[in-house]
Amino acid sequence: MKKIILVCLLTLSVWAADSNVYKVSYNAGVDKVLGNILNKFKAEGLVVVWQLDILEEFKQKGLDKKFGENFNKAGLSAVKTIIVCNGKFGNDIINADSDMMAYCPVRVTLTEKDGVTTVLYVRPSAADKESKAYPSLVELEKKVTMSIEESMKVEK
């Protein structure tokens, strides 16, 4: 039953074809989704080089007090970002068109609201299709999105 629900969630929310942002939501807390993604990324050779709990960082910087009622009006309970890199893709992109390194390393952001975690990722396929790095960017995007989707198919 859980797998059926997961497939339904994926079907409804994976992509809007005209969007430059990949988006998928899971009926699970941010820590579970993040843990699953981190494990899958590691298994797929996608190295997490940095993590940031954005909402917590904002609070530590006093932005919740500074902005008062205007702080986090979306009511998110978590906003976390990871920066991911893969040496092969990075090297291929540098060699083909170093300006396309704007898409590599990859940034994946997770938000949580009401127990639902949404994973967001700017698609490298939004880059200039004339770039010599475009085929590598598309391959990188497929690897990242597949890893995200596969990460939640495993019960942890």
UniProtKB/TrEMBL annotation:
Entry keyword set: Signal
Keyword Signal on entry: yes
Database matches in Pfam families: DUF302
Signal peptide location: 1-16
UniProt KW Signal keyword: yes
Domain called DUF302: residue spans: 60-124
Coiled-coil regions listed in the entry: none
InterPro entries in the cross-refs: DUF302, TT1751-like_sf
Protein's recorded name: DUF302 domain-containing protein
Organism of derivation: Sulfurimonas denitrificans (strain ATCC 33889 / DSM 1251)
